[in-house]
Amino acid sequence: MMAIFEYAPAPESRDVVDIRPSYGLFVNGEFVDGSGTPFKTVNPATEETLAEVATASSDDVDRAVQAARKAFGVWSALPGAERAKYLFRIARIIQERARELAVLESLDNGKPIRESRDVDVPLVAAHFFYYAGWADKLAYAGFGEPRPLGVAGQVIPWNFPLLMLAWKIAPALACGNTVVLKPAETTPLTALVFADICRQAELPPGVVNIVTGAGETGAAVVGHPDVDKVAFTGSTEVGRIIARAVAGTDKKLTLELGGKAANIVFEDAAVDQAVEGIVNGIFFNQGHVCCAGSRLLVQESVQEEVLESLRRRLSTLRLGDPLDKNTDIGAINSAEQLAKIRSLSDLGESEGAQRWSPACELPDKGFWFPPTVFTGVAQSHSIARAEIFGPVLSVLTFRTPAEAVEKANNTPYGLSAGIWTEKGSRILWMADRLRAGVVWANTFNKFDPASPFGGYKESGYGREGGLHGLEAYLDV
What we know:
6-stranded mixed beta sheet, 7-stranded mixed beta sheet, globular, alpha/beta, 15 helices, Aldehyde Dehydrogenase, Chain A, domain 1, Aldehyde Dehydrogenase, Chain A, domain 2
């Protein structure tokens, strides 16, 4: 009889993180009390309370914006090379505190430590390094004379709390703006540690301000008359509300919203490689990814081969403790998000799609959902059109490249797409016709600070990252 080998537990230590019982707002270089009702942030894997966090009222937001406005005069007057020194310093401190940040991100968000350690935190440091390099070269960026906008109001989501902060703050500071940032209410802790990093880097007071709270706090940031630039990453519904709020003002706006990406597998694709890309595309970060490859379009002739290989691969994924280094799939971020995933999955079944999940034991406490694949999906099904934002894959088929393009583009979104084929000419032909801001070829979910990211249609407008990401924070 063949021995069955099990993975021994390999938990990362929580001792590297010192979570305070309560956190205030970070305004003008100091932690201060919020005047709203405090809220609790919980560990989604265990439902234990991690800390109590202050809520910023509109008066608190006003104080933060005033601090940012005052600091803008000093910060924008610094030579780019001087601003760069602060950004480089922040990047190095992030690297020095990488283990602490990774553990805290997994505790507060529910994502596997392997992802926060190997993907999120290294990319956070890389973004600050990248934009530090731009700070003294803005005159050569192709946007004319580089003039900062002023105060940037930024609202970020819970799926990549620290990475979304880096995407927003690094280019804003490099261009000479100051910032008031609101993290998501379910994942505020790494943003508050970042506030401490700003103090450690001796960033001038008021250049970065962090205000915590729920939607009302975000609305106060977006609607403040002295905010010159609004940047939002999150749901399309909230994006519409923000666009209406900003309309008629002279505020500059970038929106990075939802997605329903097509991951397209042709018959000549390397199946094992494609399956890894499919798994990475939809089960990375529990599917809490706006550019997730949530629609698999597979050529009819290889559908069975691809699905068989995919099912075999999913049966090897390990779901459980996010702090265990062997874990592939962590916890769903909140009870509300879990309810949404369950509701849409049940709807998919009631509409006639076939649901499959590998044998998977879910923990008793916390918010969990098994990796799920739907076959027999029609383009009209809700699960093929709505952004589920969870580990749920809808499988559709196609016969010709033209049909693949038509089905891939048949969505209100346009954030990303993936192409799997051996033919370079087909990759270029497809990429030219796919209405998606980012197109990956024989890979998926690859990010680089030098590469712009953003979408079309209901996936928003504007670009973050790369040279293009500077334009959003300059008066061009």
